[in-house]
Task: inverse folding
């Protein structure tokens, strides 16, 4: 470091480009070779052949021979001395050698001469009994579906034992449900006359029930004081009927359960029904699920859940919510109503 610092730096003189030819003519051959070899190998503006000078000064030794080159390299590798090692290589093993544990062998008694208490029982059993035994022990792959379910129901298996093939069971026709024969006109008369025997009115699935008759039923509910349960599901009731029913629920003080599922009521009409039951707050059950517009929308669902927060008596509410926020709020409100009813019953 000191030898380099002893030589003071010398400022290079200014070079006039007009005298460049005279300066190059004054240089010797060695100086010209040294100047030509002064290139920047990282200069990307120059082609690769011009980034460094040619340093192959030796004369060619002859044509290229691959085999001659390989022989030379092999001879040189054998004659050169290896590097000295600080420690001579010795093959040794460190640590404990892993020895896998031998698995426990299950002893199998293949001696046919050994008799057991089950030999006589199994030899005397029929194939149907063996099928039942296989079903009890859980050998499902040995049985068909019909055999397995028949054994669970303690029924007799009519198939061909273990060699039986699964077949389709004969179709068991289910009889159609009997039509609702309730007379709508007679029901309207009983509602208007406050028949004390009429506690429950079932108008579900009545075919060819006109909209005018539905409106008359809803109008009769306004003045009725005896009906407790009202069902009118599956009658294709439109919004016009739903609005009349909401007016009746806002006035009626005896109804405890209302079912209008599977109709054509929109979300706005369902909101009107919930508003109506909040007037008197005596209804315990309201079912409005499975309407023609299946999706109510977030606005309607949240409006229904907010209205139900004001109801302190409703215990069962039949509806399908799409959004979890409205569903959770409604569930918590109904659970609180059940808890309040329990406290009132127990006197706590």
Result:
């Amino acid at each position: 470091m000191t030898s380099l610092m002893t030589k003071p730096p010398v400022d290079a003189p200014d070079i006039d480009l007009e005298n460049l030819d005279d300066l190059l003519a004054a240089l010797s051959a060695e100086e010209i070779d040294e100047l030509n070899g002064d290139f920047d190998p990282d200069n990307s503006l120059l082609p690769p052949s011009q980034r460094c000078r040619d340093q192959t000064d030796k004369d060619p030794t002859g044509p290229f021979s691959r085999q001659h080159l390989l022989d030379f390299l092999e001879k040189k590798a054998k004659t050169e001395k290896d590097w000295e090692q600080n420690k001579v290589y010795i093959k040794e093993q460190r640590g404990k050698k892993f020895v896998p544990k031998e698995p426990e062998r299950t002893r199998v008694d293949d001696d046919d001469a050994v008799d057991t208490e089950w030999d006589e029982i199994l030899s005397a059993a029929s194939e149907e009994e063996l099928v039942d035994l296989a079903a009890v022990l859980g050998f499902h792959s040995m049985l068909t579906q019909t055999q397995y379910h028949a054994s669970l129901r303690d029924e007799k298996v009519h198939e061909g034992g273990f060699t039986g093939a699964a077949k389709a069971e004969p179709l068991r026709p289910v009889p159609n449900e009997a039509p609702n024969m309730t007379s709508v006109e007679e029901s309207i008369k009983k509602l208007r006359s406050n028949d004390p025997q009429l506690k429950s009115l079932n108008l579900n699935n009545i075919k060819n029930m006109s909209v005018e008759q539905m409106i008359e039923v809803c109008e009769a509910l306004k003045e009725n004081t005896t009906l407790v349960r009202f069902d009118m599901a599956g009658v294709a009731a439109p919004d016009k009927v739903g609005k009349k029913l909401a007016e009746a629920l806002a006035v009626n003080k005896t109804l405890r359960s209302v079912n209008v599922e599977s109709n054509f009521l929109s979300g706005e009409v369902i909101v009107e029904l919930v508003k109506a039951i909040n007037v008197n707050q005596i209804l315990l059950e309201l079912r409005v699920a499975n309407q023609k517009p299946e999706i109510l929308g977030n606005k309607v669902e949240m409006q229904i859940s907010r209205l139900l927060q004001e109801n302190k008596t409703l215990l069962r509410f039949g509806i399908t919510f799409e959004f979890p926020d409205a569903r959770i709020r409604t569930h918590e409100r109904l659970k609180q109503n059940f808890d309040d009813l329990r406290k009132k019953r127990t006197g706590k």
In short: The beta strands are 200-202, 229-231, 257-259, 285-287, 316-318. The chain is about 40% helix and 5% strand. Confidence is low (pLDDT under 50) at residues 1-7.
